[in-house]
Amino acid sequence: MITDFYKCSEHKVIIVGLDNAGKTTILYQFLAKEAVHTSPTVGSNVEEISVRKTRFLVWDIGGQESLRASWNSYYCDTEIVILVVDSTDRERLTLTREELHRMLAHEDLQSAAVLVLANKQDMKDSMTVAEISQCLTLSSITGHSWHIQACCALTGEGLSASLDRMKSHVLAG
Ligand code: G3D
Ligand code: MG
Question: Which residues does the annotation say bind Mg(2+) (predicted)?
């Protein structure tokens, strides 16, 4: 049955971003809703996350420079790209912008939506969503549906809203 197929299907999500942005913490917050002790991701972590009846297969990909070259091996069939930004890391935001636009030009991601998570909003010196949006030139993205959400992976703030948005995106698509 076609309906059963859709009920059972999983939506592939990849979490990308520079090292130390908070990707692994976010993955496990999605899963457990509690902060976990993390260590730098070597290779990748993958977890299945259910938002009521919608299932996501979420890949957390290592962000160290040496690993970024292999991000593209994860792109195939990805429906949502979550880009995690450390909102306090002003110095490397330009690098994040380059990685984002390079990624979106890849043919395997032509139909993927982008969710930017402006993480570490608990820090006093964090940049706002507006600042990050401008620096990443999000408004220049035309071929992809995109959204930016402020969050704090330590408390989980902003993450339920992110999961809701992911769910409505795949249901609408
Ligand atoms: P990565 O997977 O993107 O490399 P991690 O990043 O999830 O390993 O997180 C890197 C560090 O940032 C961790 O600190 C983690 O606790 C911290 N972190 C993640 N999200 C937040 C947040 O919202 N606010 C704050 N203040 N810190 C956060 P350690 O000290 O373990 O290196
Ligand atoms: Mg990690």
Answer: 24, 41
